[in-house]
From TrEMBL:
Residues 284-384 form the Heterokaryon incompatibility domain. Residues 35-46 have a biased composition (Basic residues). Residues 727-741 have a biased composition (Polar residues). This is Heterokaryon incompatibility domain-containing protein. Residues 21-49, 696-779 are annotated as: Disordered. Residues 22-33 have a biased composition (Basic and acidic residues). Residues 759-777 have a biased composition (Low complexity). Pfam families: HET.
Length: 851
């Protein structure tokens, strides 16, 4: 046997009681790789006839054996790993340093080495050949990618309990159950945790392996995950849900699906549900998949009588096999059960969401290989395990939510509502099988009582109550959906309409306008009458509190502008995309002043006083939202020309004048300043939006003409109220040719808030009165306002009566309140622009077209 040189100096074992450890840092929370690095080459599919799956030839997992023939090295023998892995509560919990497993020279430390003819059972990896010590081999594989010779990485083995890592309370039945963690260089767990398998080897595989799931024993057991799937396991999970979760996972209402067709898995024929003698609701499976192969491989024949051709894609053949193994006769596959026209416009077929919701189970091949389903015709990845004198110890494998997040199924808009709206899902990953219903989630590699499983977080792929049971959950669905890939904004809308219909069916139903939610009037925490304008104004206030990935990019989202044929207005989140360098963990989505506890809209929040909204259509029609809101929605759905292009908004606005930074203050990243009474952090954010929206040569706000466009004076309350477009000091308004050369204007548009005071003043307020904090109408709720930061569109940079603008972002602005001082002028009082400095922001009533 050859022994390669691994790394530098030798380090002896270090282990210490964690209770006494004060100088060493705690290990970081789990951060997993999104894609497994343990992929192996896919073998030729195992062709199966139309019969039930056999367990006769399932091979064991990759197993490293520690016994007399495979003895430990001197260091591992001193550590006594069998006793530590079989740790019991009440014993000391040491941290065991594993440096020797990645830095030792094996020739010098192994007292007994097998001969070259001896074989290791861990034949799936060449690392096993580098050391004759089974423990060194096992832990080196657990650690994963090795550091370079100059690295200071120190791996540890730690004894953990469920309450520390799996989200369960310490006093819960499962709180003190044991799992072993091996820290890795990047704080990830590519093999998951180490768990002891059941003491009885007969329960490691086959029908007896479901014993732990059906019992009530408070234990986490490791399970052997064989190359091929055990169908008994899937039936156990599904039948448990049917028996015990009727309230959470049953069908509260049934929607009739017109012309529903299904594949009869016994005869392999496409049949019409209306021709069957039995009701098929909750008695069929549905297949949710992404085809990653060549499109021509999806072509197959269907006879006039519905008989499927002999040459089916292996993916469909596997789905039929699984359906029969689950005791179901019928399966829905889009390519078999939809017309050619519906397949080409699949996202726009409204019944698809109902088909998945009413299925008994949804089958999801969560893999990027379309040649078959892992565990059915495709062997799965090996599971690392260790057999010692203390028993068999298996690995829980990469956390399911993160393994699924790395496959194409989790990136497509089409599959989002198929997974969310399903009541039971079985996901087939390259490493194991995963189940989640509306109450619990579990997977093959960990045995746990299903009666106790709901309290654990083993890596949920879908949020609890994923289908949406409260209006507050909508923002979470939007945040997740924002990461899905779509070619156009209209495609993104079609892929989310099933979710929107689900929220519309709630008791406190949520309406929508191009994806913008219209929260139910009962969700407003105000004693006043809630108008349709209030509902839309609150929905327009969506924003992110994410951190910038780089200077100049202040949100995780960017506006994806498209043509009129496929694009949607900038005021709906559907027109925005997640930046490529953002992950789901550092990105959020929320609505300003909307919480999570009913009533979710904060107390006193409403649209701005005097606010009016009209909906502008492609055919030129303009409908009042307050009066004709329902008609506007019907117009959008009924006709091809019912495309909504913009919202005409009459509300309180203010200019955001941008000028050159004085030469002595100018820096590389601060060429401009914002002359506006806003908090410093808000001003910087607005400048970042401006820099991103107006690239390069357009960023030249330095001429008097440009100043004329950016500075609109506050009108005299005693005058007619008409606002001049030319500030004092300029001799005339710019002509059309000059204005077209100017950079876009920035405008703040107030849409909603609380702390409105509509009392008008008969005199022009003085600067001192503007900045004074008026305590006469002091409220218990802190006044705050939602403001859309907008920019004039490229085709409308000239001063017009009703400017065309698009959204750049939204800000939440606390202050001392709003006060109207005339019919067309108002102020926001007490804005903290600097530390201990408060000023007022002047507003005027305008009309804008928000595109």
């Amino acid at each position: 046997m050859k022994f390669p040189k691994l790394f530098g100096r030798r380090r002896g074992p270090v282990y210490m009681d964690s209770d006494a450890l004060t100088a060493r840092r705690e290990s970081s929370p789990d951060v997993h790789q999104l894609k497994s690095t343990r992929r192996r080459q896919v073998r030729k599919p195992l062709r199966r006839e139309n019969t039930l799956m056999s367990m006769a030839t399932i091979p064991p997992s990759s197993r490293i054996v520690a016994d007399e023939e495979h003895p430990p090295c001197v260091i591992c023998r001193a550590v006594d790993f069998p006793s530590l892995l079989d740790w019991r509560p009440g014993n000391p919990r040491p941290w065991v340093e594993l440096s020797h497993t990645i830095t030792q020279s094996w020739v010098n430390v192994a007292p007994i080495r097998p001969s070259d003819e001896d074989s290791m059972t861990a034949s799936s990896t060449s690392v096993a050949e580098e050391s004759p010590c089974p423990y060194c081999t096992f832990f080196r594989l657990m650690v994963g990618q090795l550091p370079d010779e100059t690295g200071k990485f120190t791996p540890y083995m730690r004894i953990r309990q469920a309450f520390e890592k799996l989200g369960v309370k310490e006093k819960a039945e499962l709180g003190k159950t044991v799992l072993v963690e091996v820290t890795t260089k990047d704080k990830d767990l590519p093999w998951g945790y180490i768990l002891k398998a059941a003491d009885d080897p007969s329960t490691h595989e086959g029908p007896a392996s479901v014993k732990t799931y059906l019992g009530r024993k408070a234990v986490l057991e490791g399970r052997v995950v064989p190359e091929m799937l055990d169908p008994v396991l899937l039936k156990t999970w599904i039948e448990f849900c049917r028996t015990h979760h009727e309230d959470a996972c049953g069908l509260s209402a049934v929607t009739e699906v017109a012309d529903l067709k299904l594949v009869d898995c016994n005869s392999k024929r496409v049949v019409s549900a209306s021709d069957l003698k039995e009701d098929v609701v909750d008695k069929y499976a549905a297949l949710s998949y992404v085809w990653t192969g060549e499109e021509e491989d999806l072509q197959f024949a269907i006879g006039e009588d519905g008989q499927l051709g002999e040459k089916l894609p292996q993916l469909f053949t596997d789905a039929i096999t699984i359906t029969r193994n689950l005791g179901l006769q019928y399966l829905w596959i889009d390519r078999c059960c939809l017309s050619e026209e519906d397949i080409s416009q699949r996202l726009s077929v409204p019944v698809v969401a109902d088909i998945f919701h009413q299925a008994a189970v949804t089958l999801v091949p969560a893999t990027d290989d379309s040649t078959g389903i892992p565990g059915v015709s495709q062997p799965r990845e090996e599971q690392l395990s260790l057999l010692t004198e203390a028993g068999l110890f298996t690995t829980s494998l990469l956390r399911p939510d993160l393994e699924v997040a790395g496959c194409q199924w989790a990136t497509q808009v089409r599959t989002f509502q198929e997974g969310i709206l399903s009541r039971r899902r079985v996901l087939f990953t390259p490493s194991q099988c995963y189940f989640q219903c509306c109450s619990l989630h579990c997977h093959e590699s960990i045995g746990v009582s299903l009666h106790l499983a709901p309290s654990l977080n083993l890596g949920r792929v879908f949020a609890s109550d994923a289908g949406g049971t409260t209006p507050a959950q909508l923002k979470d669905h939007i945040r997740t959906y924002m990461h899905r890939e779509a070619i156009t904004a209209t495609e993104r809308l079609a892929g989310f309409e099933g979710i929107l219909r689900r929220y519309h069916q709630l008791d406190n139903s949520v309406g929508e306008l191009l994806g913008v939610p219209l929260f139910n009037i009962d969700e407003f925490g105000t004693g006043a009458v809630v108008s349709e304008t209030d509902r839309l104004a609150v929905g327009l206030g969506w924003l992110s509190n994410g951190q910038a990935p780089a200077p100049g990019s202040v949100e995780p989202y960017y506006y994806h502008e498209e043509g009129l044929e496929t694009g949607l207005p900038s005021w709906t989140w559907l027109s925005w995309r997640v930046r490529p360098d953002y992950g789901s963990l550092n990105q959020s989505f929320q609505f300003s002043m909307v919480g999570t506890t009913s009533p979710i809209v904060a107390s006193g929040v409403s649209a701005a006083p005097k606010m009016e909204i009209s909906v502008g259509f492609e055919d030129g029609k303009l409908l009042s939202w307050e009066i004709d809101g329902d008609a506007a929605v019907r117009e959008k759905r009924a006709t091809p020309t019912g495309r909504i292009l913009f919202l005409r908004v009459r509300t309180w606005c203010f200019n955001l004048p941008i000028r050159d930074t004085p030469e002595q203050e100018k820096g590389e990243d601060r060429p401009y300043v914002l002359d506006c009474h806003l908090p410093k952090s808000v001003r910087q954010r607005v400048l970042d939006w401006y820099r991103e929206a107006v690239p390069g040569e357009k960023q030249a706000p330095s001429t008097p003409i440009a100043d004329a466009h950016r500075s609109i004076p506050w009108s005299d309350p005693d005058s007619s109220g008409v606002v001049d477009n030319v500030p004092s000091g300029t001799e005339q308004a710019p002509d059309q040719e000059q204005a077209s050369k100017n950079p876009p204007r920035m405008i703040g548009v107030v849409v909603s808030g609380r702390g409105w005071e509509e009392t008008t003043s008969s005199t022009q307020p003085t600067p001192s009165s503007l900045n004074k904090n008026n305590n006469k109408n002091k409220q218990t709720d802190t006044p705050a306002f939602t403001i859309l930061v907008c920019i004039t569109k490229d085709d409308d940079q000239v001063a017009v009566d009703i400017p065309k603008i698009r959204r750049l972002g939204a800000i939440h602005l606390p202050c001392d309140g709003f006060a109207a001082v005339s019919e067309r002028n108002a102020i926001l009082r007490g804005i903290e622009t600097e530390v201990s400095e408060k000023k007022a922001l002047k507003l005027d009533l305008r009309e804008v077209d928000l595109w």
